[in-house]
Each structure stands twice: as structure tokens, then as C-alpha cells.
Amino acid sequence: MISETLQSTLSNLSANLLNERHKDGYWVGELSSSALSTAVACIALQLKSKKSKPPESVTLKELVNGGMKWLAKTQNDDGGFGDTVLSFSNISTTALCWAALCICDTEKQFSESRTKVEAWMTKAAGDLSPATLQRAIIDRYGKDKTFSVPILMTLALAGRLGEGKSGWKRVPQLPFQFAACPKEWFRWMRLPVVSYAIPALIAIGQVRYKHCPNLNPIGNLARRLTRKRTLTVLSEVQPSNGGFLEATPLTSFVSMSLISCDLEEHPVVKKGVEFLIDSVREDGSWPIDTNLATWVTTLSIKALSQSSDFESQLPETNRQSLRKWLLDQQYRVRHPYTDAPPGGWAWTDLPGGVPDADDTAGALIALTKLGPIDDIAIESASAGIHWLMGLQNGDGGIATFCRGWGKLPFDRSSQDLTAHALLAWSHWQDKLAPALKQRVQKAVTKGLRFLQKQQAPSGSFVPLWFGNQYLEVEENPVYGTGRVLLALNQYRDHTGVTSMIEKAENWLLSVQNPDGGWGGGTGTPSSLEESALALDGLASNPKPSDAMNEAMKKVISWIHSATKNGTKIEASPIGFYFAKLWYFERLYPHSFLVSALGRAQIHVS
């Protein structure tokens, strides 16, 4: 009976996933709209409209009005704003929406929304005084200034931190002059922002310097001398379509900063505004990023490949087309944004993408599913593997973008990225030239040691790029543990790995909900994504225990019921974007479920 339930649900889910393909054969997906993105985009466009003439000013004001209407419509009942329409209110997004209401609502159309948001902010921060607001924002992010300074800068633009210089003094001065140095020096400078935030470092550093220069004459001299050079650096790293990292928030922060420096005609601003105009949605909102096409494509390929029907679902001509598309996404030259060498893949096929560890590992695995392992595939994979090993830190873990940047979020070694790299290496290790194979073996040993040290006493693992809003610390150990198990089960013959696997499996079993599903951790509501991830991890064991088999049967029944036999799919906000911005992606539950049910087929009878 459970086998029939699995097959029926999997068949419908696979058909749905295949139907989600772009007309050219790959997957694009759809990211959730974001209140934060919409707020900062509206602010940037509003500031630009004030310094523009018709017809540009009219067009920009129409976009701003559409965005503000969307914000008012989607405001949470408590008066605050979350990162998505399914997210809890948080002080970062709510503060930026408040700033948008102050700057953009010139005709007082949204006074009710502003009253509600100020009431929420008062309750969350304690009061609305500049000192209290500054402290509340800084406390949320600690030493990492990647996101706290952009929020404070925006509040200063809105006049919420005080008038004139007194308000700008509450915005920390970012050392934008450092961006004039060679990129290879950055890892030694202990910058207060993470590697991907150099455009914000430059633009926000310059607007703060303009409105409130520091008293230190040496620092001011360095800033004055490097101002033009760092603007040139900003132009050099801006992609052809204007969107830094394809990200509306980052592009908006940069644009509003330069506009406030009276640089509204600067090429960076013009291209940034064009990106915002091009990326607005029909409902007036903006997502946090344009798309995750490469990422969701590799997820979909890997998911479908778990089924025995893979070759009929994706015939040879489709696989060849996907293989060519995926090979075309590999970076063949040094990337200007992070100075990354050739060989990696980004999350998107668009100009703003930057090569990273997770997407490179995903692409390497997907390539093994799409055709013969010929010279072309081996050459591409060897470059990707070499690139991925270049991100391995001294502790054995894998970083996201750049090796050795430090301990700030999204630059440090992470458990899920390390596991993904290990899984990718396992797919290629026996196909490589002897010298590279030997290097991979050493990298694997270091990676496994890192995971062994990082495993929590409970047996769980914590990911970097995914979380759960129901947990107090907003982590998602179910995601991390499920993903790490996929890798560990490929290295069962290595010392200590079996023990790690048993502890991780026992922890997953201990946090399964009574309904059969999983949330992000203990006591959290079951979701499709997290239930699939737990099932995928357990099913990767070639010889699951009786308890594991029973748990898998329970979750399969839950999935069947929750999806109405694979016909109703609802996404949950488990994704973390830069600076821990929540998002959900429409294809995540599709691909996670297809992968998990496909892998579980061999265990269920």
C-alpha cells in the first residue's frame, strides 16, 4: 500500500516538475516577492524621480506608487513587515518599510499603514528615538555591518535618526577607501562587511562621508584621495544589466547612496535604476533576486535522476540540451566582482551572478546525470573541482565565495557547503587524472574532519543558507542534517563516519513530528521542504534500520496527504538570502520531494 502511495505521489510530482521547465528546457523558478526589496527599490526610484524630468520622473513615480500599494496591501496584521508574505515581522524589514513610507508617501495616501508600522516599531525597539533605533538595529547584527549600516543609512535619509549631521553620525563610517586596494589584500584587512558587499562598502561609505566627514584628518584625506578610484571600482564590478548580484536590495542601496551624493547622473546609478525598472513585477513588488535558474535547474536534474524513469522523463535530446546549457554557465575567465578564478558556477544564468561553492557543487553532480563522461565533461569538471578546492579553508570547511575572508556570516566555512562539495567530489573522484584524484582525496579527508568537529552533541548539523523562522535562533538543523547525510553515506568506509551517520540519523528520528512530517527542528510545524530533506537524508543509507524504515513510511503518508497525492504544492520561507533575508522559491518543494521519494523507492515495499 505505501509503495503504491509513493509511486502515485512521485508520478504526479515529477510531472509537475517537468512542466515547470522554461521553453528552452531548463528551469527558472520563481522567488517570493519581498517587502524589503520593494521598500528599498521604491526609495531609490523616489530619490531619482525628484532629480529627473518628465517623462522619466512620471514613470518612476508610477513604479513607486505601485510598490507602496503592494506594501500597504501585504502589511502583516501586527503592523510590521516580514521578508515574504509568509514571514513573521522583523525589525530590519519593518524599519526599511517605515523609511519608504516616510520618503515616498508624499501625498499621505498610506497614513494608516505608517501609523501601524510606527506602533510596531515602538513596541519592537522600545521607542522611536534615534539612539534607541540605532541600538536596536546594531544589536540585531552585532559586529557584522553588512546589513546594519545600510539600514541605518536609509533611516538617516528618511530623517528618522535626527536632523543633519546629528542623524548621519549614527551611521558608522565604512572604510570605502580600502576598495582602492588590490582585491587580494581584502582577506587581510578585516573588513566590517562580507565579501559580496563591496559595492555597499563603497557607496554607503561615500554618502556618509559626504554628509558627515569624520574629524580624523588622515582618514578624511584617504577618503578624499580614493573617492574617484573607488567609484571606478564600483563601475568595474557592476554587471552589464546594472544589478549587483541580481539583487534588488544591494542595487537599491548603492543607487540611493550615490543619488544622495548628488551623483544621480553617474553611470552606476543609471544602470542601477534601469535594473530596478526592468525587474519590477506586475503586482508592483520586487523579489530579492531575479532568479536562481542554475541552482533550481541542477536541483531538478538531481531530483529526477533518483527515479528509475529518469531517461524516459528526460530523453537524450533533452539531456544533451541541458548539458550544453549547464556547460555554458561555467565561468571561463576571472570574475571581476570577487576576483574568483575560472571554473565555478553561479546561482543564475544572468549577468549579475557570481561563482559560489553550492552552485558549483550542484553543477558538478548534475553533469554526471546528463550524458557521457567524455573529454568535454572531464575538462569542465576538473576545472570546477579545482575551483571548489580553492575555497577550502584551513579548517577543512568550504566557504561560499572567497577562501580566507574570515568569520563573518556567509564568508566562514559552513557545514552544508562542505557536505555538498564532498558529495560532488564523490561523483567524480574515480574519473579524474591521478594527480587531481590524489588532491581530491586529501580535500575529502580535511572536509570530513571539519564535519566531525562541527557536528552538534545532539548529532545535528546546521546549514548556512537555510533557516526556520519558528526556531528561536532561526537555524534549520533538519536541512543541514539531511544534506550532510547525503554526503556522509558516500564515505562510510572513512574513519569515524559511521558514528557521525548514526548520531545524525538518530537526531532526525527524534525530531519527527507526530503527524509524520518534519519542520526545521524540535517542535516546529511540518513543511514539505523539510520533510523531504529529512526523508532524502535517511533514504541515502543503503541499509536503513527498522526505525528509519518506519519513519520513512510515516513521512511518505504525510507527504501524500499534504500534497493531495502530489497535486498541491505550497512553498515555505526556509531560504536565507544575503544578510539573512528570508525567501521562498516555488520549485524547492517540487525538487526536494521528487528527490526524496525517488531515493526512498528502493526501501519501501
Précis, in short:
By secondary structure, the chain is mainly alpha-helical. About 55% of the residues lie in helices and about 0% in strands.
Features:
mainly alpha; two-stranded antiparallel ribbon; globular; Glycosyltransferase; 4 strands; single chain; 605 residues; 2 domains
Explain what you see:
The protein has 605 residues and is mostly helical. The protein has helices at residues 2-19, 35-50, 56-74, 91-104, 111-125, 130-141, 148-157, 164-168, 198-211, 217-237, 248-260, 267-279, 293-304, 310-313, 316-328, 357-367, 375-389, 415-428, 434-454, 477-488, 497-510, 528-539, 546-562, 588-600; strands spanning 33-34, 286-287, 575-576, 582-583. The strands form two sheets. The chain has a two-stranded antiparallel ribbon. A two-stranded antiparallel sheet has the order 3-4. A hairpin with a 5-residue loop joins strand 3 and strand 4. Helix 22 packs antiparallel against helix 23 (546-562).
Provide the fold topology.
Blueprint: H1 2-19, E1 33-34, H2 35-50, H3 56-74, H4 91-104, H5 111-125, H6 130-141, H7 148-157, H8 164-168, H9 198-211, H10 217-237, H11 248-260, H12 267-279, E2 286-287, H13 293-304, H14 310-313, H15 316-328, H16 357-367, H17 375-389, H18 415-428, H19 434-454, H20 477-488, H21 497-510, H22 528-539, H23 546-562, E3 575-576, E4 582-583, H24 588-600
Antiparallel strand pairs: 1-2, 3-4
